Amino acid sequence: MTEMTEDERDALERAADEPMLEQTERWAKINSGSANLAGLARVAGELADAFAALPGDLELADPVPGEIVRPDGSVVQRETGKNLHVTVRPDAPVQVLLTGHMDTVFGETHPFQELTWLDDNTLNGPGVTDMKGCIALMLSALKAIEASPLAERIGYEVVINSDEEIGSPGSAALLAQAANGKLAALTYEPALPDGTLAGARGGSGNWSIIISGKSAHAGRNPEEGRSALLAAAELALKLEAGIGPGLKVNPAKIEGGGANNVVPDHAVLRLNMRPETLEDQERAHKLLDEAVADISARREVDIHVHGGFGRPPKPIDPEAEKLFGLVKECGADLGLDIAWKSTGGVCDGNNIAACGVPVVDTMGVRGGAIHSPDEFLIVDSLPERAQLSTLVLLRLAQRGRL
After folding, report:
1. Could you tell me where the beta strands, DSSP code E, fall in 108-246?
2. Helix extents (H) in 18-165
3. Which residue in 120, 152, 205, 363 is a FRET match for 246, CA 20 to 30 A apart?
4. Which parts of 21-63 are beta strand (E)?
5. Bridge partners (DSSP) listed for residue 123
């Protein structure tokens, strides 16, 4: 254990005293599902007001335009919300990236919209853990840093995006830009209820595969048709056969078809693949390419593949091990036993690591049942994890290295 300095103790006290619970409740009462642009704009405005307490430049950055495939196979622009971007002391000797997301998986019409106290220390509500409580503690740590004598040694960028839950299509470029030149990154996905962090992560890719066949009368001349629906089904089964160690494949949905007396000439297959390593990702690419070529030739259909790997696998390299070691050391000095384990889930930490920046991506609150109406926040983890972030940032500022 490292003996804490008086400056560290003062900063930890400041971090714990910030109104994190009140902020969490206020932000969680605003629906900010990834497709609710009006709700996202309201939350972005609230966050901009709160983060304006920090020095530096603040903007609500426009997203990069993206695309989405409709069930009819047409490709249209996908709208996402603005992203909060804060830059503080870009010329300081130590540079760090902190990221989070303002969107939730609960859409504007989802029945889960209210906050409920389950007991004195457990709050149930949409986004309280994933991740509006996490954003509140991030801000608390940064405000504590700003009051520290070490503030001038550390600069940082904050990106809070509006589309993380759908793969960050409109904010990936901003994240990559902000990661450039950083010593380390902290991403504020929630920890597990016992405080365990995510270590290595697999990758994730999503595709919409558009299949065009040829229609025909199902009774009079079906042999002249080329069924897009059967091609989609066979393609799904062929891709499923690629499931094995290091690769998960999920053909999730087939859209298409029509009247019972018509050979269907159109279908869209929705697909997700999750490789554990970059080698597994290459294997997944090969699997998809070979399956598409085979089905297209044998079924005499045209197949257009739309999508790709938006989240590359995130291994734990030596630099990431050093950052995890620092977090563990700071946790021990606060009386916390910090552990981590590999997970199949993905987040913006995957993208940051792919930029060559070591990242710990579960620096948020303790809680659980995320992405469900049972989502809960362990309230006393707000000051606990705010202090953990504060101490990590102070020691990065002091040491100038991992």
Report:
1. 116-119, 122-124, 154-161, 184-187, 197-201, 204-212
2. 20-28, 37-51, 133-146
3. 363
4. 57-61
5. 117, 377
Number of other CB atoms surrounding residue 248 within 10 Å: 17
β pairing state of 83-88 and 116-119: unpaired
Residue in 20, 24, 41, 204 with CA at minimum distance from that of residue 131: 24
The string of pLDDT tens digits covering residues 96-116 is 999 999 999 999 999 999 999
Q: Smallest Cα–Cα separation from 101: which of 125, 76, 128, 130? A: 130
How would you classify the pairing of strands 302-311 and 340-343? unpaired
3-state DSSP assignment of residue 103: coil
Q: Which of 196, 183, 186 is nearest to 159 (CA)?
A: 186
According to DSSP H, which parts of 185-277 are helical?
228-240
Which neighbouring-strand residues pair with 206? 272, 308
* Cα 352 → chain centroid: 11
Smallest CA-to-CA distance from 174 within 55, 64, 56 is with 64
Residue 246 CB burial class (10 angstroms; 0-12, 13-18, ≥19): middle
- Does pTM surpass 0.90? yes
